[in-house]
Specification:
Blueprint: H1 7-25, E1 27-28, E2 35-36, H2 38-66, H3 80-83, H4 87-106, H5 111-137, H6 141-148, H7 153-170
Antiparallel strand pairs: 1-2
Helix pairs in contact: 1-2, 2-4, 2-5, 2-7, 4-5, 5-6, 5-7
Amino acid sequence: MPPAYPLRPMVNTALFVALISVGAFIAIPIGPVPIVLQNMFVLLAGLILGPAWGLACVGIYLLTGLAGLPVFAGGTSGIGKLFGPTGGYLLGYLPAVLVTGVLSRALGKRLGGDILAAVAGSMVVYAAGVPWLKIAFSLSWGKAVAAGMVPFLLGDAVKIAAAAVIAGKIRPLVKL
């Protein structure tokens, strides 16, 4: 009797949880929200794993951090991170990976479509993170955007391009 859940997607999901976790350790503190690589791996999970397994991946990642393993930016963890300035960004990863995966599939899993899907996913992260930052620090909208989005746009453009190229190279090797 075959297993209820296929092993290959579960292993790929676990690998992406590890990549997202490692990406969080590569952090450059520039203010209340650091520059990290974890968002690139979240987008890549959506592009490669698709919406369902990508959502499972990010959910496991968040639960791992909430359970106390140091997988959030700078090697931190705990429920306090979800109530701090980065909480909106962390929670935004869930709908972002879903949107990225759905759009990538709908657009044919091609470079241009993957870039559009990753841009949409990044916009979802900002849509969740910037208002959270505004509330957490009682900032004006202008200051929240200036602190929580503007400094990251150029780096995110590079990460989006890299994720789309990597997805194109890796996707044929990953059988889900």
